[in-house]
């Protein structure tokens, strides 16, 4: 008989011992295990119930309100879009009432944009900062607009942080826009070295952008 064949009975005994121990464990803690399984099932069912019977209807309501607000926003009725009128509650109220929905999140950005258009820059920053989006054109524009709001408030250091953050997303269309804004702001902060860095990045990495068309003028200005 080979050594492998000699080991088989011992291996079978080990397996039987493990199974026996498992059965003993289950018998000993059967009640606790059933409770644990029951709790897990209850959590899953509760999560599904919240999603299907609370979140889904709330999102539908929020989308309906957002559609009204976006229509007003499109025709530059920023005050009404923000505060609401008649059967429309307003972007600001959508943020408050539907904060846990995607539409509530989007409403935060629209609220901030409306405040910016109305010249209320502190409120613009407050609401724009609440928006949490993916790295797309809209999200980058929101980040950049926070920088614009800080510029309006005379807070150049805070502004340049947001311009460089937006530029750092490596977007073929928008990065050059915010690099140029960052460069101009660095010039205003008497930091020509950082301004040159921004302008050079436009020239080297975004040569086909609109901002690159006259970037040599800006580079020459900070190299004096």
Protein architecture, described:
It is built from eleven helices and no strands. The chain has a domain at 135-224: Tetratricopeptide repeat domain (Serine Threonine Protein Phosphatase 5, Tetratricopeptide repeat, Alpha Horseshoe). The chain has helices spanning 3-28, 30-74, 78-83, 91-97, 102-117, 121-128, 137-152, 156-167, 175-188, 192-205, 215-223. It has 224 residues and is mainly α.
Short summary of the structure?
The chain has a domain at 135-224: Alpha Horseshoe (Serine Threonine Protein Phosphatase 5, Tetratricopeptide repeat), CATH 1.25.40.10. The protein has eleven helices and no strands.
CATH architecture of the domain at 135-224: Alpha Horseshoe
Radius of gyration in whole Å, from Cα?
30 Å
Oligomer: single chain
The CATH class of the domain at 135-224 is Mainly Alpha
CATH topology of the domain at 135-224: Serine Threonine Protein Phosphatase 5, Tetratricopeptide repeat
**Chain-averaged pLDDT:** 85
Low-confidence stretches: 47-51
Span of the ends, CA to CA = 93 Å
Structural class: mainly alpha
Chain-wise SSE layout:
Blueprint: H1 3-28, H2 30-74, H3 78-83, H4 91-97, H5 102-117, H6 121-128, H7 137-152, H8 156-167, H9 175-188, H10 192-205, H11 215-223
Top keywords for this entry?
single chain; 224 residues; mainly alpha; Serine Threonine Protein Phosphatase 5, Tetratricopeptide repeat; 11 helices; 0% strand; flat
